Amino acid sequence: MPGRKGARNRQPLTPKGIELMEKGEMVPYHPEIYSNFNTVALEKYMEERNRSLPREGPSFSWVKLLLMIVLVGIPFAFITQYVALKVGFLISTLFYVAYLIGLALRWKPKEVNILSGAVNLVDQTMVAFAFVYPVMFLLALNDSYILGTDASGNDIRVVSEQLISGPWLPLVVILVSTSASLLALFHFVIFRKLWVVEEPLPTPGFESIVKLMDLANSVQSGSSKAARSSMAKVGIASGLTFVFAFFRDFPISKGLSTLQVTFKGMGLQRWYISTNSLNVPSDLLKITKLNLSLNAISFSIGWYLRTRVAMVLFAGSAFMWLFLVPLAQYMHMPYYAPVQDAFFDVNHVHLLSPYFSGIGGDPSRNAFLICMNVGIGAVLGAGTVSFIKVLPSIREMFRGGKHTFLGAVRPEGTIKNAYEWPVHKIPYVSIMAAIVIITTLILVGGFDPIRSLIVTIFLVLLAFILQAISVKTAGETGSGPTVMIVCISFIILFFLLGPFTGPEEKGSTALLVIIGTTALLASEVVSKTVQWDYKTGLYIGTRPMELLKAQITAVAIGVPICAIAASVFALEMVKEGVPFEAPWPDIYATLVMALSGGRVYILLVLLGVFIGALMELLTGKGIVFGMGMFFSIGTPLMILIGGAARDIWQKNLARKCGSGAEGEEKRTLKLLDSYMVMTGIFLGEALVGFLLLMFYLTH
User: Fold this and answer.
1) Residues contacting residue 533 through CB under 8 Å, at least 6 positions apart
2) Who contacts 7 (Cβ-Cβ below 8 Å, separation ≥6)?
3) If you count Cβ atoms within 10 Å of the first and of the last residue's Cβ in the chain, which end, N or C, has fewer?
4) Cα separation of 598 and 593, whole Å?
5) Cα(307)–Cα(581) distance, rounded to whole angstroms?
6) In whole angstroms, what separates CA 468 from the centre of its chain?
7) Measured in whole angstroms, how far is the alpha carbon of residue 14 from the centre of its chain?
8) Comparing C-alpha atoms, which of 480, 435, 442 is closest to residue 460?
9) For 553-601, how does the pLDDT look when each residue is reduced to its tens digit (9 = 90+)?
10) pTM beyond 0.70
11) Dist CA 457 CA 654 (whole Å)
């Protein structure tokens, strides 16, 4: 297919690579493989080679798989979800931890590929439950989302508290999300044929995973010893971070932490009024808020993001707190108080708080709440532009789809001992998933049949298209359009369900939209995550069917666990017992309110759309810029410090390790060590967070 645009992903074959493939001597871990990634010829050669080899028996044991999921995957899913809600970023190091465990225990590379991928999938499925699932709790229980009051003085909300009460809601979310996620795994059988073998996408970053498998295969590299050393670094970093975070957060006297008591004893309590950051006192700086986060997680997230992305995030926060918030106060912008259904001068609202409940007492804080509408618009504008930018890839996808999709739907043998799942059986899986979803929504959730049918069709048919867009984008850029997927899902579902929604059914429709979007996002993350596993497996000889079996197990266990954890965290987020700074639940809750007919500042949203679109065109990171607008300035500042530290360290590392294969291996192991230190920081902070959670639940 030489005329197809997808050929731009292809790299030229090396003469040595051509010679080895012609002789049939190109084997996994051969040095020449690295020079021929994404050449199409290599991928097709490895596919035929792997398919033709006799099956040697399973490359993993079910005992190891279940132990890894239960002992490693599930605990880290809790940790990652806590970190995501704490800071607002999804940074997971579980893959590297699982890899080091396999390395220390001298597992075969195929085992490491299968098991590390499975536990990483457990970890990644929590994205939807960290960022979308809490929306229903915020809308039903948080005072910031009251639309007004009725004649009897009762709060009017998009989603009432009665709709989310009872044990049925988590069960509905679990069953629907699990079904959609499992279906996404089978959808990827088609995507694998298209974008891993036929038209291989570059998938930035996968090369390092193949290199790690190469290290696992080498008996002379000393990697097993290095793995044990790296795990020791996790323990040390975790212990030190735990001590610091406990000193900073845990209440010891009248609700104050050790650090707060220390500042109070020094007469500096006004400089440290929270458990997370140093703050410039409001009497010294009245028109805005400046602070510095003392959250170690923020530093470690910066380590992963590096300087460029961290700088864009910080720029968004600085734009909010150094320009928009002071400007809103200077212009005396009206602040809407939903309980009174009236507007007040943002500078005078605090004077009214003794008389009007529900109105905040800080002009800069209220100015921020107004300017959040600009941030919402920025995220939507950047997401729209990013979607337009990938339209050529989407057109190419469907252009090539006729050849690949229709050509793939043919009998490929029985499931038993199959190389991969037979594509012609995927429609049967789709029918089974549809039956489970619609039955759950009607019988367990109590939703009416018509709207339940619409959501089911959306999750079975339209979700396939959105998953394809996400996989294609992640394969080309290294990250998927998660924000865009969520916004599109909200808009489509509200549009489809609107004609069948009566005046008294807006709350149940909003709930259906949130449930459907949660399931869609879970399935999108599954599709995006397994891409790296299959691409790595192609080069090292892992059979796709064995990867699929492990992934099915991971999803079946991981989705329920993540949903249960999210329910606990969401309730704490609403009660504000544990400070969570993640902006996404608030962003999506505001979007649902707007789509449900709530009051929003349209002009400010449109201004934000323009700003976000412009930043996406200028930097390619417009969503990151928009996201920065929702943070207090101290968190992005600490993230920026972490990013700068990573770049300085890595520049010095390159000089010390030298060049050549030996230098590359040293750099890989040193970088892995740094990831382990950051993992320890995550773990230490999360352990203190868990203690805090238990403390507030029992008090």
Assistant:
1) 113, 114, 117, 120, 547, 551
2) 1, 199
3) C
4) 5
5) 21
6) 17
7) 37
8) 435
9) 999 998 898 888 888 888 877 776 566 777 778 778 877 877 776 666 7
10) yes
11) 52
Q: How far is residue 75's CA from residue 67's CA, in Å, rounded to a whole number?
A: 12
Average pLDDT over residues 380-384: 81
Decide: helix, strand or coil at residue 292: strand
CB of 542 closer than 8 Å to CB of 494: no
Which amino acid is located at 236 in the chain?
I
Cα separation, 211 vs 199, whole angstroms? 22
How far apart CA 562 and CA 405 sit, in angstroms, is 33
Is the pLDDT at 668 greater than 80? The verdict is no
Residue 268: band (very low, low, confident or very high) from pLDDT cuts 50, 70, 90: confident
At how many degrees (to 10) do helices 206-217 and 660-698 cross?
100
Sign of the dihedral through C-alpha 525, 529, 531, 533: negative
Is the CB of residue 320 less than 8 Å from the CB of residue 313? Answer: no
CA distance 641 to 455: 44
* Tens digits of residue pLDDT in 284-309: 777 888 888 888 888 888 887 788 88
Query: Two tokens at 458?
Result: 């959306």
Decide: 486 and 132 in contact? Cβ < 8 Å: yes
Measured at the alpha carbon of residue 70, what is the angle toward residues 64 and 71, in degrees to the nearest 5? 85
What CA–CA distance (Å, rounded) separates 122 from 640? 29
Flag whether pLDDT at 478 surpasses 90: no
Q: Considering Cα of 459, then 594, then 86, then 636, what sign does the dihedral take?
A: positive
Q: Supply 415's token pair.
A: 């499931």
* Residue 661 in tokens: 């294969």
Q: Which residues pair with 343 in a beta bridge?
A: 336
Structure tokens at 371: 């300017």
Supply the pLDDT for residue 696: 64
Q: Residue 122: what pLDDT?
A: 85
